[in-house]
Write a structure and sequence with these properties.
Carbamate kinase, Archaeosine Trna-guanine Transglycosylase, Chain: A, domain 4, alpha/beta, 20% strand, globular, 14 helices, binds glutamic acid, 369 residues, 5-stranded mixed sheet
């Protein structure tokens, strides 16, 4: 497996790898070595996103909180203190490699609620296009028990889906998945490729092997389900060594959960299958031709819009003959969309009075029927 073959890759780093359990300070030499690897990937053209834990681990030490389980309030306070230290570590380590860190803190709702999801996604892709490395964590200070991810494995998988990453690497304290707990069962076999997450695989993850890693093997398999369904191949590899990404490239042990389609295909499958359209946009013959040639839908080609919808909803795209030709995610709320029907891109800014998106439906968000 070559991590440099990914175009956009999310690397998830757990607290145990990043924070020294004895003294509660960041393991800077390890982090610097990981940033070497990240810089190497970036140098080969991959876009890298980091999902990093460690806020609570760093904060609890700074606040001198007792060992053992923390209450939610204590964890949130620790996260508030520790997140600053965590960002500082990443900023410095990435800067030493000529890379700029950008912090994004997300809650479960940000990855579930469509409007927030789209905003976070747009910011992330802008940052990536500017060559930044988004460093993401859960926004622990505002997340209550019900709205928490609680583990960054699943958060990382959501982020991978949101960013349309084709690769997700979970750096763990174990080098991958075994059929049973290798420490207690000598017949345990290492699984290097998982083509499909079957009930057997889930059962293995729910069993003894889960004790070996922080988030547990179960959350990793849950993450794999989310990632592979959005067209992202997921790897579990050991982060206990220096240069863990380079090690994978050099043939080191890891478990690969294969995605069977690309992120774009997965997204398009979702658009067609997801839900019934919230509205209908009727377009002229010129726009029909443009769409058939792979172009985005611009407001200029629209002759009418019906329906009460929000930005991010699925719309049916119809020709004036009444035939549906495509489905797509709309970039505007209904009210705004109505105002720009038939308008040229140059007129839109003065109508809406704010920076705007040129496309009513972007071609990546559209499926021809
Ligand atoms: N968000 C938490 C932190 O940064 C950790 C969650 C996890 O490790 O899965 O401390």
């Amino acid at each position: 497996m070559n991590p440099a073959s990914f175009k956009r890759v999310v690397i998830k780093v757990g607290s145990a790898l990043l924070v020294d359990q004895q003294n509660g300070i960041p393991k800077t030499p390890w982090l610097n070595a990981l940033c070497d690897d990240i810089a190497e990937l970036a140098g080969k053209g991959a876009q890298v996103i980091v999902v990093s834990s460690g806020a609570i681990a760093l904060g609890r030490h700074l606040l001198k909180l007792p060992k053992g389980a923390l209450t939610l309030d204590q964890s949130q306070a620790a996260a508030a203190v520790g997140q600053i230290a965590l960002s500082a570590s990443w900023t410095t380590a990435l800067m030493n490699h000529g890379l700029r860190a950008a912090q994004i803190l997300l809650t479960f709702g940000d990855t579930e609620e469509r409007r927030r999801y789209l905003n976070a996604r747009a910011t992330m892709s802008t940052l990536l296009s500017m060559g930044c490395v988004p460093v993401i964590n859960e926004n622990d200070t505002v997340a209550t028990t019900e709205i928490r991810y609680g583990d960054n494995d699943r958060l990382a998988a959501r982020v991978a889906g949101m960013a349309e990453a084709d690769g997700l690497i979970l750096l763990s304290d174990i080098e991958g998945m075994y059929t049973a707990n290798p420490q207690t069962d000598s017949s345990a076999e290492f699984l290097s490729v998982i083509e499909k997450i079957t009930p057997e695989i889930e059962a293995m993850a729910g069993g003894a092997a889960s004790e070996l890693s922080r988030g547990g093997m179960k959350t990793k398999v849950d993450a794999a389900k989310i990632a592979t369904a959005s067209g992202c191949t997921m790897l579990i590899a050991s982060g206990k060594i220096k240069h863990p990404i380079r090690a994978i490239e050099e043939g080191g042990k890891c478990t690969v959960f294969k995605a069977h389609e690309t992120p774009l295909q997965a997204r398009k499958t979702w658009i067609v299958g997801a839900m019934s359209p919230a509205g209908v946009v009727t377009i002229d013959a010129g726009a029909v031709r443009a769409l058939q040639n792979g172009k985005s839908l611009l407001p200029a080609g629209v002759v009418g819009i019906e329906g009460v919808f929000q930005k991010g909803d699925v719309l049916a795209i119809r020709g004036t003959d009444g035939c549906d030709i495509a489905r797509g995610l709309v970039a505007y709320d209904a009210e705004e969309a109505q105002k720009i029907v038939g308008k040229k891109s140059a007129e839109i800014e003065s109508i809406l009075g704010e920076p705007f998106r040129e496309e009513l439906v972007h071609r990546d968000d559209m499926v021809m029927l």
